[in-house]
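Input chain follows. Return structure tokens only.
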Amino acid sequence: MNNNGLSPIPPAEYEARARAVREGLAERKLDALLVSNGPNLRYLTGFTGDNANLLITEAAGALLVTDPRYRIQAAREVSCAVEIAEGPVVVEVGEAIRREGVTRIGFEPARITYEAYQGLVPRLPLHAEAVAVSGWIEGLRMVKSAAELALIRHAVGISSKAFEQVAAKMRAGMKESDLAAELEFRMRRLGAEKPSFETIVASGERSALPHAQPTAERLCEGALVVVDMGAFHQGYASDMTRTLFVGKPGPKVKRAYRAVLEAQLAAIDAVKAGRPTAAVDRAARRVLAGYGLERAFVHSTGHGLGLEIHEPPRLGRRDKKRLEAGMAVTIEPGVYLEGWGGIRIEDTVVVTKTGCEVLTPTSKELRVV
């Protein structure tokens, strides 16, 4: 493998991940696993192209199949065997499956398109069976390695610095859309590949929309402003939210902000390896209930992040997963009151054996602009 510095994840780490899948095939009564293009494929090989399949078999190991556009890129990025399909990738994958003589092939129902699935099944060997396998690779991805955490930490630093640069210049009269564009520009200037999602800037009554899109609405005196942003760095995401206020906040704003901040700190205190994810959610809701605001909290307390901005585990009231050291998750309680506005505070944290490390360095005091 000629890595050429393209991936900060050591080649041996990718090989160990693919080997773990290969060794887990027999337990799942599979001869092979087909991994479709996307974050799971990148996790197992380091390949960043957008047209490839990975076939892992017990006998032959890992085979990446892609098209001629990615011949050079695949040679640089991956250490497993590579085949270049002259026609559709699915045809070459079918040929590889027939060559290996496998009869039970796992596939990822949430990752493969219906068109690709329909193209693959007729090309399987006679009496071969395609078996839906959900969540296997996503489960492996939940606990991050030291190299992955370093990338997430760097992504967090990018978004936090960008926020500080832009927040210092925020004033009444600025458009939400202009602020969102400036935040994304600053993240790119600081080294981000791209935003990890469409940046949210929502002011006034629109701040009560948890996933509001920026508009031409201008910031005005007496308005709450929710800013939710993140950056991708070397494929790994960050996520943070801060709430600002234009002008002088009154008692209702101060009380609601205090409630959310206390809820967020209580949830962070509840994070520890071995704890159920639902316990973190309960900690946040308990605080908000004390303020009479629990019903205004309409989403889960957090989610995992890594190669995707939303990935397992989910920190919701009905989730049963237990936290493990090395998981990277968000802690983001909020309250949303229609006709008034919303407040959310979000950090990215890493679960440890004794608690968690908060990666987001940005102050959580209510910032007044």
